[in-house]
Amino acid sequence: MGKVTGFLEVDRQDRKYRPAADRVRNYNEFLIELPEQTLRDQASRCMDCGIPFCHDVKGLKGCPVNNQIPDWNDLVYRGEWKEAIRDLHSTNNFPEFTGRVCPAPCEASCTLNITDSPVTIKSIECAIVDKAWKNGWIHPQKPANSTGKNIGIVGSGPAGMAAAQQLVRSGHEVHVYEKNQKIGGLLRYGIPDFKLDKSHIDRRVVQMSEEGVIFHTGIHVGVDLPVKKVIDSHDAIILAGGAEAPRNLPIQGRNFNGIHFAMDFLPQQNKRNGGEQSEFSEDILATGKNVVVIGGGDTGSDCIGTSIRQGAVSVTQLEIMPPPPSKENKLATWPNWPLKMRTSSSQEEGAEREFSVMTQSFEGDIDGNIKKLHCIKVDKDFKPISGSEFHIKADLVLIAMGFVSPSYDGMLEELNIDLDEKNNVLANTIDYKTSCSTVWTAGDMRRGQSLVVWAIREGRQCAHAVDKFLMGKSFLPR
Do 133 and 177 contact (CB within 8 A), yes or no? Predict the structure, then answer.
């Protein structure tokens, strides 16, 4: 521990945003980096607790990838940045992703969060990896020997990328199949550029290619390429696709023009930014429109920020849940992730938020275009409150109510693979093995819609299981 009294002497200071009036004019990242001395001071606040709850100790909800947070905080405090990135990479393949888009459950479980002043773990993590890239400390790690084993990974999101990097470094030949034209999965196509600039993904793809990973893009396994051919070509297969089946809202008027799923809307803009051609039959744009986003989570927030940047006239976000408390009860929640009111950067940019609202029907014009939502307030048991009906004008409705499962048509159907009660691919967390003899699974396809940090964890653990199966033992970390 670097400075025993750091948490007493230094107040919490975190990254700030560029002014909303400036940032909504483009899709650039807008977090303002902290100066190096400030970061070192913030790292000195880490108490190196006897029980570091930020580690996800014994199942408590800290860091899913078990980052050695006190260790690299101490290294940053001492100015040993190069050693800090070595430590950070020992548990997390892609800290530049988690340092930008992870909600930081580690900070919620920090002992200093008892007084609402946790260590700025996420900002320090991001600074470590950004500094390492800037200084040229991150290089391809090529294996010394080849095992002669061949592994196929379907899906190039964070789970697939993490598994691929771990396995190729163990000497296996690794092939990654991605249905889109570029690597990254929902990291690339679901998360807006202003939250995660795609150059961070491109940089890792170059590193992984130089390590030996072979990427196949524009190939939809189960559609463009038969699953049997993939299985016959590899000693092991990892299914690392996303939970892509969106939760629908099947109410009156659902078929009006202008009502779309969030994941039809967000990838379009990301593809425009990346210079890709969209395969969608129509452009979904918020420009000059009154936009209603149904769903109060991160995906809904991303729809807000994108709509505002496209030039929406107004944006309203509807949430069926009641407004959460402004402050959690520490004695009841800590060190677990608390339910409390949070306002995202996109929500700050100008959205109206409505809680305890149920959408009852959509109304359109004679041309079949959406014009109104008919809504009603609900009580804590989600029962409609008589007399609370109201309507909202809308030219574009984006349904962001989460995802229910992976898409079953195609690959999973052809495999005839066992599913769990939620229609995710069935596998446990011991060996990630599916009902098919040479097929494993990890990430959202196994656990359902979740966080980037959980995907990285599962990809790493699945890689260990596959390596052990093929070689009889594995030196990869679990």
Answer: no
